[in-house]
Amino acid sequence: MRVKRIKAAGIIFCISILFLCDCGIQSPSSVDKIHIGVAYYNQSDTFLNELVDCFKEQINELKDDGSSVTMTLRAASGSQRTQDDQVKELIDAGCNVLCVNLVDRTDPSEIIDLARENNVPVIFFNREPVTEDMMQWENLYYVGADAKQSGVMQGELATEAIHANHWIDRNKDGKIQYVVLEGEPGHQDTIIRTENAVDTLKNNGIELEKLSCGIANWNRAQAQNRMVQIINQYQNKIELVLANNDDMALGALDAYKKLNFTETDFPVFFGIDGTNAGLEAVLDKKLSGTVYNDKEGQAAAMAKLAVEVVSKDGTKTDALDNDKYIYLPYSKVTTDNVNNFLNEPDASSD
Ligand code: GAL
Ligand code: CA
Q1: Which-ligand-closest: CA of 244?
Q2: Does residue 293 have its Cβ closer than 6 Å to ligand 1?
Q3: Quick one: pLDDT at residue 319?
Q4: What is the 3-state secondary structure (H, E, C) of the chain?
Q5: What are the extents of the domains in the chain?
């Protein structure tokens, strides 16, 4: 009996020691458990879907390397109210870092307040909040790209094409008749891309005549509709289409096909993003060029930063501007180099 009692006490003692040890090991590593909540503005945006896919690949890589990372994804169907609710749910579900692609980039206050109350850092991406909002709390970050650079590069691509191909000026009046297709009004990439593409062409000595401008909210079908109206007005007078993204450039092309124009009456089209469809269209010479929006780089920067802000060991990537911002560079894409981008190594493979 006595022996049994001693044995039982011994077992309890060992279990307690094990338990204590286990707690001792677990507590530091529990800080490193990363639950990332990702919220993005709209599930029908081509570039965002491709960027989110790259981010998932980054997370899988971290898992393969033995990190304890989980990710929960929510898309907001273009409603800021919906996104605010989704962010609340993500925080309630235990996310300890958020990656947020705002619906309304001027309205992040509710998300910032929720995050600050719960001490959950936020990495905004792709839709840049205004500086005053970014300054509201030290644990707010932004990962994206420099809109101005993409506009300048699109202008350079168009300049190079116009210099090299005199047929682009179809009516031979020494001017390029052009149309702009714009993304959402108020988006940092809309105004800045248009302005810089047009200014770059002018600064390079290209004489321009603006025929029309349409808003198509980054969307291929909307761009097609808008472009059908514009073509009905200007017929074969349009020589150049500058679109704020690839989907809208492809939508413009769809409009010419729908109206059964012969290819000799097509203008030249330029996009931005280098989406899968955009790159294929450059390869097929349907788009004259695009500007690569480095989704692999942005996804990798977000994943790295998410790990760093949760780990709290103080080390932050040295790529942070003003302790908050990471801007990945764009690149010009034409038929000459498109294969480098089509073969872009899959972010999840070594
Ligand atoms: C831009 C991109 C667009 C669209 C938009 C959404 O950077 O070029 O295609 O995805 O972001 O915010
Ligand atoms: Ca002309």
Answers
A1: 1
A2: yes
A3: 76
A4: CHHHHHHHHHHHHHHHHHHHHHHHHHHHHHHCCEEEEEEECCCCCHHHHHHHHHHHHHHHHHHHCCCCEEEEEEECCCCHHHHHHHHHHHHHCCCCEEEECCCCCCCCHHHHHHHHHCCCCEEEECCCCCHHHHCCCCCEEEEEECHHHHHHHHHHHHHHHHHHCHHHCCCCCCCEEEEEEECCCCCHHHHHHHHHHHHHHHHCCCCEEEEEEEECCCCHHHHHHHHHHHHHHHHHHCCEEEECCHHHHHHHHHHHHHCCCCHHHCCEEECCECCHHHHHHHHCCCCCEEEECCHHHHHHHHHHHHHHHHHCCCCCCCCCECCCEEEECCEEECCCCHHHHHCCCCCCCC
A5: 3-137+295-328, 148-292
- The predicted structure's pLDDT at residue 10: 44
To test ligand 1's pocket by mutation, which of 45, 77, 127 has the most ligand atoms within 8 angstroms of CB? 45
Ion ligand 2 contact residues with beta carbon within 5 A: 169, 171, 173, 175
Mean pLDDT in consecutive groups of 10 residues from the start of the chain, 350 residues? 46 39 35 89 98 97 92 98 98 98 98 98 98 97 98 98 98 98 96 97 98 98 98 98 98 98 97 98 98 98 95 73 95 98 58
In this structure, the residue with its CA closest to atom 11 of ligand 1 is 126
Per-residue confidence (pLDDT) for residue 72, from 0 to 100: 98
Cα-to-centroid distance, 181 and ligand 2 (Å): 19
**Residue 47 confidence (pLDDT):** 98
Per-residue model confidence (pLDDT) at position 311:
84
Q: Does domain 3-137+295-328 have CATH number 3.40.50.2300?
A: yes
Nearest CA to ligand 1 atom 10: 47
Point out the ligand 1 atom lying closest to the alpha carbon of residue 145: 7
Q: Is the CB of 126 under 6 A from ligand 1?
A: yes
How many whole angstroms from 124 Cα to the centroid of ligand 2?
A: 42
- The CATH number fitting domain 148-292, selected from 3.40.50.300, 3.40.50.2300, 3.90.980.10, 3.90.1010.10: 3.40.50.2300
Q: Is 148-292 in the same CATH topology as 3-137+295-328?
A: yes
**pLDDT value of position 315:** 72
